[in-house]
Write a structure and sequence with these properties.
Elements lengths: L9 H85 L2 H11 L4 E9 L29 E8 L4 H11 L5 E12 L2 E11 L1
Antiparallel strand pairs: 1-2, 2-4, 3-4
Length: 203
Amino acid sequence: MTIGINLIPFRIQSKRAMRRRLKAWIIPVAVSAGMVTTPIVLETYRRGETEKLQTHVDHLRTSLALDQTKLGALTAELGVVQGRVERANALRSKRAWSDVFALIGRCLPEGSWLTSVSTDPVAPTGSVAPKAKHDKTAPITAVALEAPRRLKIVGFAKDPSEPYQFVTAVKQSNAFTSVKLTHSRREPVLDGMYFNFELLCEW
């Protein structure tokens, strides 16, 4: 029979036992604390990221609203410019004035004659007031000339049916989108009575 004798002092044995008990408690407490704090940390992180994303979304929405406002203004300005360009192109290429007058001459009945052909709006006339000699700081004003959109034709006819014949012939030429006889009335002209008529052609 063997008998074991523990010669370690009681004080040291007590410390060792205390350390063993502390280890036995620390591990479960640490695991429990980790289980409790991990969801809190994850939730805090999620909220922080959500706030960052929301701030970024708000910034993008503000930028989008500003860009849409600018786009609307640019679109409206582009429409105005395109309208001017189209009217200018119509005058330069599609509406050669020599061809227009030749067309009018072909459509005009033999017993009729024209007194005036004018555009609407009428081209501005008159003189520009001279600038002062030493006024070098005066602002320069840009003047936009609107292209004509209508043609007014005025003339006289011997027979009351001739203005209507003239309108029909101009319409059949398909040179204008709209041709209207605005009036035809009998008036005294020099040696007799004739029918004064007016056509309004639009393109």
